[in-house]
Amino acid sequence: MASAARNNGLQAAAVLLAALLLVQSGSSPARAALTCSTVYNTLLPCLPYVQSGGDVPAACCGGIRSVVAAARTTADRRTACICLKNVAAGAAGGPYISRAAALPGRCGVSVPFKISPNVNCNAVN
Question: Is the pTM of this model over 0.90?
Answer without folding.
Answer: no
